[in-house]
Backbone:
């Protein structure tokens, strides 16, 4: 695939921000209705992170490489070999490659991945290398 079709760092960030807003806002509103408080403490715990991680892991296997944010900015996750994404690919990419590695390295792999997308010709981050994926437009 030509470099022209590789999703840039800014498109990937925009998709992530849109996804966060789209998922975060209804949860915040629901918690406000229940508690009457706009506290954001819940966003650091299991109540938010587990469903969000499941969304990022499962949705691309159902929606041909897309989550809502990626769909809006017209980019998608795809396998390098052209096969359809499987749940095992997304577990390797999102749970192991992003979440667990990011957690155990105190965010260093997240920073390294951002730099990789900025610098590498193929725009692939650590989680893409682990899962055999790329993000394209």
Residues:
């Amino acid at each position: 695939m030509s470099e022209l079709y590789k999703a840039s760092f800014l498109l990937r960030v925009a998709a992530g921000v849109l996804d966060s807003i789209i998922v975060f806002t209804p949860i915040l509103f629901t918690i406000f209705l229940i508690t009457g408080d706009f506290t954001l403490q819940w966003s650091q715990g299991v109540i938010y992170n587990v469903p969000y991680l499941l969304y990022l892991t499962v949705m691309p296997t159902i929606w041909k490489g897309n989550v809502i944010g990626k769909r809006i900015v017209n980019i998608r996750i795809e396998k390098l070999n052209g096969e359809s994404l499987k749940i095992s690919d997304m577990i390797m990419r999102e749970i192991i490659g992003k979440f667990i590695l990011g957690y155990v390295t105190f965010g260093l792999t997240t920073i390294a991945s951002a730099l990789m997308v900025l610098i590498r010709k193929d725009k692939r981050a650590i989680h893409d290398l682990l899962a055999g994926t790329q993000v394209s437009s």
Q: What stands out?
A: The radius of gyration is 15 Å. Residues 9-35 form the longest helix (27 residues). DSSP finds six helices and two strands in the chain.
